[in-house]
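2024-03-11 09:14:02 INFO queue: dequeued item Probable membrane transporter protein, len=265
2024-03-11 09:14:02 INFO validating residues
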Amino acid sequence: MEFGIEAIALLMGVAFVAGIIDAIAGGGGLLTIPALMAVGVSPVQALATNKLQSSFGTASAVVAFARKGRIDFRRFARPAMGAFVGSVLGAWTLQRVDPAFLAGLVPVLLVLMVIYFTFGPKASEEDRHSRFGPGVLVGIVIATGFYDGFFGPGVGTFLTTILVAFFGMGLVSATAHTKLLNLSSNIAALITLMIGGHVLWTIGLLMAISSVAGGQVGAHLTLRVGGKMIRPLLVVIALALTAKLLSDPANPLTAWVLKLALGGP
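2024-03-11 09:14:37 INFO prediction written
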């Protein structure tokens, strides 16, 4: 598949902005996946190519956080492995099942996340006591890894919220460890989709260059500004992703609401 200069420039610019957003709050796929589809890439190819470029950007953010000592690799080794396994299963399933039904569930989860960050207790910059043990964390991460490999939008936002709400992590720490888990699930999904022959390598690698630069910018902004920026951006990203998903008339939740409004059975 060939792309013109204008399309390449557009995709690289979108990847840079998405890299910044991903490093801070997650949700960069909200920009890159529609951009890829807008230039004629099929949905599965868009998801696969997005995994390629976002893997580089996420790795860049992980390196930036690790250099500042913000990632506990020993504690999160097992969760990272869980994310990898879950994502492989999700990406394998993606190639065999229509993921459209998830588009109806995700907006509900995102709205719940917005409610938590808007009306829940203010997230601290410091880690607190975890409500659950490491086994529960691994189980949750396997499930979110499956979602990331199968569908993907909002997984970084979900993980950050989970680490803050249930595992007592401060916002910056939760964001840093979310990047590690994202990297593991991204690589797993990429390998699985690569084997299936769905990755567009040329455009994916060009976007990766921009994504790496964006990931570095986003990680440094997070470390410098902290939770003051992360919390509102999480809410904005969640609302934007909800609006994007619900704007599609084919979304199961949107179709159900329209049917009720029109008085259908």
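2024-03-11 09:14:37 INFO annotate: The mean pLDDT is 84.
2024-03-11 09:14:38 INFO item closed
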